[in-house]
Amino acid sequence: MNKMHVDMGEIENEPVRPKITDAKGILQQNREFLDFFWDIAKPEQEIRLKAIENLIQYLKTSEKTDELTYTLNRLVDGLAHTREAARPGFSLALGQVLSVFEEVPLHTAFDQIKEKHNLAKVKKKLIRNAAFGNFFGVLALSQSTRLPKEPQVVLECVQLLQSLSQYREHLRDLPRKTMVDILSETSEEVFEEVLLGALQTDLSSAFSTPEQLQLLLVAMQKFPQVLKPKKLKKLLGTSTIITMDNIPKLTDVLKMAARSVKKDRLLPAVALDLLQISLREDNFELFWRETIINGMLKDQPGPTHYLSYRLLGSALPLLTLAQLKQVLNGEVMRTYGEHVVSAQLPDRFKFAPEMETYVGDFLQGCDDPEKQLAVMVAFSLLTNQGYPVVPSFWRVVHHLQPTALQSYVDWLKDMFLNPRLDSCLDFSTRRQKENQEGGIQRENCIFRLRKWIIPRLTSIAENNQVKREEALVMDVARFVFFHAFFNAKKATPDILETEATLSVPLDEKTRAIIINSFFGLLQHINHLPLLGNSPEVAARNQRHMQGVMADGSMWIFCLVRYADTLLNQPKYAQSTQPFSPEQRQAWDSMLASVWTLMKKSKKGQTPETSAFQQLFLLVGIHLFKAPEDLVDLMQDLQNCMEKAQEKKSKKKKAVTGSAAAGEEEPHWAEVVVDILLSLLSQPSRHIRHVCRTVFSNICPHVTARALTAILDVLDPDKDEEDSSIVVTDDKDKIKKKDKKKKGEDEDDEEMNEDESDASDDDSDEGEGEAMEEGSEVDQNFRIELMKVLQNQGALATEEDGSDDDELDDEAMMKLDGSIAGLFLEQKKKMQAKKDEKDKLKKEKTLVRDFKIKVLDLVEVFLARQGSSPLVLGMVEPLLSVIESGMSSESDQQEQDFLRKAADIFKNQLCRAKQYCKTVGDRQGELHDLLEKLMTKTQKLSDSSVSLYFFSASLYLVKVLRGGAPGASADGKTTTSTEVLCVNLLVTAVEHITTGVREHQQSQASAMVLRGLQSREVQQLLAGNPWAVLLQQAVGRVAASLETVVETGKNKVVQEKLVKALELGLFLVKTVNQQKLSVDLEPLKKVLQSMREVLGFRKTGQMEDTYWAVMKHFGVIKPKRDRTRKTKDQAEPTAPKKKKGFLPETKKRKNRKKQLPVSEQGAADANTVPLGKPEGGKKKRNKIKRKLPGGGETPGQGLTKKAKTTQPEGKQKKGGRGE
């Protein structure tokens, strides 16, 4: 009873709680309804839009007035949300609600917005939020689409936006832009009667800011009947906008607009509106000349220049043909060209992509071919010392209509024949002007222009997006071929290229560029699909017909016929390198062979016929490039075709039979392979592509000797023998090619304005490098130097007895000359060594590139003839390539070669679906090879190479099983194979524990796992041998894991542990699934002991694999206890002495009785409310206020005492409270 009175007294002493009010009605709403507003405030746009949609649907369904009222209040409050991402969501939601529920008056919503976000009453620190609240409120009213229906609200919105202009530091130009948007949706009547008076001030001061000028321009475009010249005269003092008096003001406004969008990188709307006004007032020339050229471009390169370029791009669709030519040949284009050249350095803003977008959009939307042609020609004539600034492969060309495209190609050809430099808008950069001595050379400009035109023509023919016809492609190909190898002597209608002569003859550099461009074009059209849009063409393209025209003839054959026409009419066309009689005979025989093959192909096309036809055409067209090298090759090809068709004549035998009597002649496929290898030595992508196609066609006829010739090229042991032949042929050609390209590269470098001039010191740097390489002076040079010094008496000897004697001037000069001559000779020796080293490096690069091409033939053969017994001969050569590549240097080209060889071996050979199943009498040979590979695998030091040998062994096992001839021999073959496979796996299993290094032991585990996972191995060792092998593996894995129980920190040991656990996981899973009689207890015991030592409490590959194994033994990974320890569970730790605190003798003694740690924790548990954070000053103060009497309770004392057990970072705040 007494206790009850005490409780009642405590209740009476408690302070009276205030009455809960719900002014906003939040507590009356349901949770689903309130969640809409939370989602509206989220930053994700999809969530916001979905919430707005659901909110409107909910309000439509509920039809409750209080919910609609609450929605309006909540959305208006959210307009000034502290989070910037939430404001647009609430504004959009308010606009949608006002649009759907028209019973809500706009005036009421506007008054509510002004009242809630009153800028006059709000606190100073909330001014920014209130300004945004007003702005987004007006924006919501504008988005409701009801604003034009209520003129008074429109007026009040405009007035509110005008008042917000003073908060520019927060809102920038958003109020003015919104006024423009409202103005564009307002009717002419409302504007004249309601808004014109309110906007009088803004319209009168239109030349002050870009926003006010844009407001005037939009009003003039929208309401021309209201803002007539008389009205403009009254507002501005002039009846038009573009006048000489207004030019300075307009220039200043445009400069302000350019700086305001510097970071946005876009064209201000006021600039485009001003351009349109100038066109409407017929003052475009004045505006462009005075405002843009004499105004904006006079500033330093920056935002004003970029605005001019953007205005140029935007003006293209608005101008007439005459205006286009005027603008595109003016100062803005020249300045743009200088920007393109100077912006080539990294970390510089590049406007060229934007201009390409402008031009592409114009060409795509323009239907006038003349305008399209004018724009393309103008940009092509913008040149830097003759070289156009637009790239030769300009993607906008695919927007040209066929008529404009043909006209543009004709213009390019005419410009190539007759370079008119005076029509170019040419410029030179500041650095180019400084480096020029004696002005620009006309010949160099012509060379640079032609160097651009030829790739421009070929890119049009090669671009699949361009709407081109066969006639256009052939026209370009003929033009490039003619000027690459011929000169026009006299015009004839039979050869169109002879009707136009060159005004300036071609030099060797230009012709070299044309030749390279032609063979690049030839590579492209060789696999060009059929051109056209007809259904027949589409159907034929589905059959992947490439390199042929609509009539079925090949592109390359048409070019060969055109070349033959030129050769047969020397009166009109003269070859730059006339054929010798022998070369001409080779050309004629090639044509005859092609015609013969074409006649036979009409009866029935065969792969051999197609292969020879392509080879003849390829070698024939390359006769123009290298006739001396290909004449003999053409003869070999002729003989080879005759052998293949079995039509050899005695005359041919007498001519070609250079072998000794009685010696067997090579098969025709072997000769073709030799020809292909010879062609692959030449640096040409087209030749490489044709060689792949030809070899694919003759794969069924390839003999063992032909395949050996291919593999011999890849053999690393034969590099020294074969590489000299390959490299010598290519080296000379590449040297010539480099000489031809030298001038081209120099001209490309001139395009960079800020390019370093360090090239002048190249020779000095080269000398320094040579001296550095020879820093270790050889003994012979030292002896020679000593002799020179002794002969001149400059070196003291024992006979002299003194070194005080000095040489006279004449002796010193003589000594200097001798030393200089000696050092010069030594320098020449060192340079010769350096040149020899570079030569060997180039040769090695060429050999490696040649071998990469030869790998194409290996890949093709494996893809086409994977089941042929000849494939078995590739195993050892490819393994030797991989083994040699792993041990050699690792430059990028070597890595590419090794990666390609390894990929072919692994994927095309070992894992191929088609493999040899008919080994015949080669079983013994394969068994020996398998034994050899197994023995080699055991001795290899590199485990990564041993994996490839292991894959080869498995492949041979697969071949032997598939190649069993019958039932009687099957048992013998299987038994022999089982012995080999078991020996291989048993050896690998033993290495799990007997490997010399831990890395080898880990790789042994990986090899065993890979072998056991093979389906062929499982089928091969089915039954008791399989269980025995698994038992051995389990024992080895358990023994291996025992050695790493106490050492788990080393990376190599961790790798060994991971590999062993992966193998153990496979063993346990296989034994359980197949229910084999294999004892897993040793492995289980080792794994349990590992858990006690290593723990495996973290996450990672090793830990996850361990628990995956233990899961099969019924042990589940324990969940981590993430709960924090309570104070009674915390172990008492001795307080550390901290710097800056008073010593114990100087501290004020705490006279209050302190409880033990266990009692203290219990008291804390009783005083701290459940679910609330422990400790903290704020919480302790609340507890003191709630307890009556004001005396200190045990809980308060314990709370204060508990500060001594808090982390170190929080003790510093306690200070002297300890």
Description:
The protein is mainly α and 1218 residues long. The two termini are 42 Å apart. The strands form 2 sheets. A 3-stranded mixed sheet has the order 2-1-3. A hairpin with a 2-residue loop joins strand 1 and strand 2. Helix 23 (402-417) packs antiparallel against helix 25. It has 55 helices and 5 strands. Mean pLDDT is 76; it is low at 1-24, 647-663, 720-776, 800-804, 963-975, 1125-1132 and 1152-1218. It is extended, with a radius of gyration of 45 Å.
Q: What percentage of the residues does DSSP assign to strands (E)?
A: under 5%
Global geometry: extended
What does the oligomeric state look like here? single chain
Unreliable residue stretches: 1-24, 647-663, 720-776, 800-804, 963-975, 1125-1132, 1152-1218
How far is the N terminus from the C terminus? 42 Å
Structural class: mainly alpha
Q: Report mean pLDDT, rounded to a whole number.
A: 76
Query: If helices are DSSP runs of H or I spanning 4 or more residues, what is the number of helices?
Result: 55
Major beta sheet, strand line-up: 2-1-3
Helical percent range?
Answer: 55-70%
The count of β-strands is: 5
Radius of gyration: 45 Å
Biggest sheet overview: 3 strands, mixed
